[in-house]
């Protein structure tokens, strides 16, 4: 089995550790060695494992290691990825045993994605890098998703939707057929997006409306 660590020891990180264990129950794949987290002292423990250090400890590591990000903050994940200089680190895709890909032959998948339990990916879908799909996410046919996006539980991305980079989708939010989402946008919990979302904007409601703060 290959050594793997999780970057982010919070709630999503602990959930991801549980996901790795469930993957191993189906097919032994990963040897989970612990967490990296810049906000916790090395040696801090939770029920799933120990914090090994932060970015400096990871860059100093003299061994091959897989890293999976589990931080629900798109810009933070992108920044951390940019700071990793250790050439022995790789970024696998982590897919739950209960996730369903309707047509694997037509799925274009980058690296570093996490697809959690009971999520469903339709046909002719493109996913970039480091997208985090929490539980029960649906991605419709012909959807195009960029990189570093956070999809919280129950998000629905309809067919022919285009999603850029570093977007945050709140719990139960919906993007309707053919609607585009730019970069750095936020869609609030249970909001339904009928019209394109502009870069850096925040939307709430059904129908979702742009809010300025």
From TrEMBL:
Cited InterPro entries: AcTrfase_PglD-like, Hexapep, PglD_N, Trans_hexapeptide_repeat, Trimer_LpxA-like_sf
Family listed: Belongs to the transferase hexapeptide repeat family.
CDD domains for this protein: LbH_AT_putative
Protein name: Serine acetyltransferase
Signal peptide per UniProt: none
Pfam families in UniProt: Hexapep_2, PglD_N
Positions of the record's site feature: Increases basicity of active site His: 142
Residues at the active site: 141 (proton acceptor)
Taxon lineage: Bacteria, Pseudomonadati, Verrucomicrobiota, Opitutia, Opitutia incertae sedis
PANTHER family: ACETYLTRANSFERASE, UDP-N-ACETYLBACILLOSAMINE N-ACETYLTRANSFERASE
PglD N-terminal domain boundaries: 3-81
Record field: transmembrane: none
Family annotation (Gene3D superfamilies): 3.40.50.20, Hexapeptide repeat proteins
